[in-house]
Design brief:
The structure is a single chain. The chain has one domain: Beta Barrel (Lipocalin). The chain has helices at residues 2-25, 87-96; strands at residues 27-31, 34-35, 38-39, 41-45, 50-55, 61-69, 72-76, 118-123, 126-131, 134-135, 141-144. With 146 residues, it is α+β, with helices and mostly antiparallel strands. The termini are far apart. Strand 2 and strand 3 form a beta hairpin.
Length: 146
């Protein structure tokens, strides 16, 4: 009986921590890097596990879902699944097909360059973009009051 009580207490504490973490991440974030006076990226994380992204000088808003595993934030969006093309390949395509309106995409709206998802390391009120080799401290996101 005592082991069962300890086990149930541990489960409740662990599940309580994950709920707290979700509340901590929710809010409005901005990139610390700016493009012509505007943050490179503004992101809003909702308590229900959804998010929106707005890049500087791009009218499109990207929507998706987020989840946390340990100290890592994962973002998923249908837009992130779109294959991207290098700027050189796009230029070649436009030259070869000048009348086409179906130009390949250079960007799928991602901020971290991870395949099919964006990934951030969570440290307090800051989100550090993950790379293939770890995380970078450049152009991280910081929580702001909106």
């Amino acid at each position: 009986m005592k082991k069962t009580l300890v086990f149930l207490t541990a489960i409740l504490l662990l599940s309580g921590c994950s709920v707290t973490r979700n509340k901590e991440i929710s809010g409005h974030y901005r990139s610390t890097c700016y493009n012509l006076g505007f943050p490179d990226l503004e992101a809003h994380f909702n308590k229900d596990g959804t998010f929106s992204y707005k890049h500087a000088h791009n009218p499109d808003i990207i929507f998706g879902k987020w989840k946390i595993e340990n100290d890592t934030l994962f973002l998923f969006s249908e837009k992130f699944e779109i294959e991207t093309t290098s700027i050189e390949e796009v230029a070649d395509y436009i030259i070869a097909h000048p009348d086409s309106t179906d130009v390949p995409s250079v960007s799928n709206g991602q901020y971290t360059q991870m395949k099919g998802k964006d990934v951030y390391l969570i440290k307090g009120n800051k989100l550090y973009p993950m790379t293939e080799n770890g995380h970078t401290k450049y152009c991280h996101l910081i929580r702001v009051k909106k």
